[in-house]
């Protein structure tokens, strides 16, 4: 089983870098002059069109025979879904794909006490409404932005913009939807990046582990099937949380996931954006964990990594 997983991971890496390899080969063909480059590009187009025509026939047969379950399963495979999108053959419409993408980030939004609602998609513009509140660090606006924007763009690359529908003015001390997504219209303005951390998959239920991600020390924990990641620093004593474990608070309900600082013994609720239980003004700095390109990844704000 381990061998199969490693083999699958290697295959995934091969096709994900195929575009770069093709571009490199096209650049190399330029050494033979303009005509050689044009012929190489035409060859690529012919091959792409050929495979596209084949995929179109496969999808047509599945639809004609009513194999919708197979179509849905194909749509969940990253490689197949990406090829179907390239050729305009994806079985799900853009709104369905956007809804699925938002469902994938909803657990993280929920850990911040918030949620996202799809208003609709019109003229390649996705209209969203952020609900609830965000009660974490200032960097959370960047990480939320990365999570929502990247999920939507990956599922529906034909969309060109995201518009956030305004909510009533947020109470003092909360981050409004407008400020949360103020930079979502430009990729260059997103101050952060996703870093693949496949080792996160090794964490078992109830386990806590430390990781170095993008120059930043991260503390990650698994509660049931959910993974949570935080900057490895206790806001109470400013020390590393290395050695911390998850426990149930005195009188707490089953399923409690409380992290106790091994130095100052401060307590934080892992599943509620790292909210401080001893001092409500203190909280851990959360970072989103999502599956990006088939690999567990953490979004690290540039400012945090630089610090």
UniProtKB/TrEMBL annotation:
Could you tell me which CDD domains the record lists for this protein? Rieske
The record's annotation in Pfam families points to: NifU
Q: Which GO MF terms does the UniProt record name?
A: 2 iron, 2 sulfur cluster binding; iron ion binding; monooxygenase activity; oxidoreductase activity, acting on paired donors, with incorporation or reduction of molecular oxygen
Some GO term, biological process aspect, for this entry: which one?
iron-sulfur cluster assembly
Task: Name all Rieske domain ranges.
Answer: 195-298
Keyword annotations of the record: 2Fe-2S, Iron, Iron-sulfur, Metal-binding
The task this protein performs is described as:
May be involved in the formation or repair of [Fe-S] clusters present in iron-sulfur proteins.
Q: Which PANTHER family match?
A: IRON-SULFUR CLUSTER SCAFFOLD PROTEIN NFU-RELATED
Protein name as annotated = NifU family protein
């Amino acid at each position: 089983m381990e061998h199969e997983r490693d083999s699958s991971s290697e295959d995934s890496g091969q096709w994900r870098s195929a575009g770069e390899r093709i571009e490199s080969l096209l650049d190399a063909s330029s050494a033979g002059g303009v005509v050689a480059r044009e012929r190489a590009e035409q060859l690529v187009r012919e091959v792409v069109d050929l495979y596209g025509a084949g995929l179109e026939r496969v999808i047509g047969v599945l639809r004609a025979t009513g194999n919708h379950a197979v179509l849905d399963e194909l749509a969940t495979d990253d490689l197949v879904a990406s090829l179907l999108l390239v050729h305009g053959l994806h079985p799900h419409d853009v709104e369905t794909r956007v809804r699925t993408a938002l469902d994938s980030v909803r657990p993280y939004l929920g850990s911040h006490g918030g949620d996202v609602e799809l208003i609709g998609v019109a003229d390649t513009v996705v209209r969203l409404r952020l609900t609830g509140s965000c009660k974490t660090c200032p960097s959370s606006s960047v990480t939320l932005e990365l999570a929502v924007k990247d999920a939507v763009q990956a599922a529906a690359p034909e969309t060109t913009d995201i518009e956030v529908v305004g909510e009533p003015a947020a109470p003092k001390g909360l981050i409004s939807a407008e400020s949360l997504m103020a930079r979502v219209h430009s990729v260059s303005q997103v101050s952060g990046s996703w870093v693949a951390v496949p080792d996160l998959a090794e964490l078992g239920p109830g386990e806590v582990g430390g990781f170095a991600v993008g120059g930043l020390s991260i503390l990650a924990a698994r509660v049931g099937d959910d993974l949570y990641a935080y900057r490895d620093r206790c806001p109470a004593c400013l020390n590393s949380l290395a050695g911390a474990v998850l426990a149930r608070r005195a009188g707490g309900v089953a399923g409690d996931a409380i992290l106790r600082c091994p130095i100052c013994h401060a307590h934080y609720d892992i599943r509620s954006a790292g909210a401080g239980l001893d001092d409500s003004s203190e909280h851990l700095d959360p970072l989103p964990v999502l599956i990006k390109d088939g690999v567990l990844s953490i979004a690290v704000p540039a400012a945090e990594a630089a610090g």
